Amino acid sequence: MADLVKDIRLAVDTGSVVIGTNEVMRAVNDDKAKLVIIAAKGKKQTVADILHTCSVASVKFIKFKEGSLELGTACGKPYSVNTVAVIEAGNSKILEEEYA
Hints:
It is a single chain. By secondary structure, the protein is an alpha+beta fold. It has one domain (4-88): CATH 3.30.1330.30. Helices cover 41% and strands 20% of the residues. It is built from four helices and four strands, in the order H-E-H-E-H-E-H-E. A four-stranded mixed β-sheet has the order 1-4-2-3, with helices on both faces. Helix 3 (44-57) links the parallel strand 2 (35-39) and strand 3. It is globular.
């Protein structure tokens, strides 16, 4: 089993990601996003909108088991992050691994 937090950080450091709900939605709608990661404790309507958009666009998504502060920390950011879209994985194997 792979470590999601390490793979997120590696993707942020070596690949291409976008952070934030508006940027993630834009990336999904523009067919740039390959994977979307959503913090567990986000606004229900926002999470539902992102999940619906991902399912319509056939973009894989992962529900991060912790909150937005922890997702921000995983990204190496000193603030809350609700959503992350992976555009290019870089040296990370985040697009290939399965996470429980």
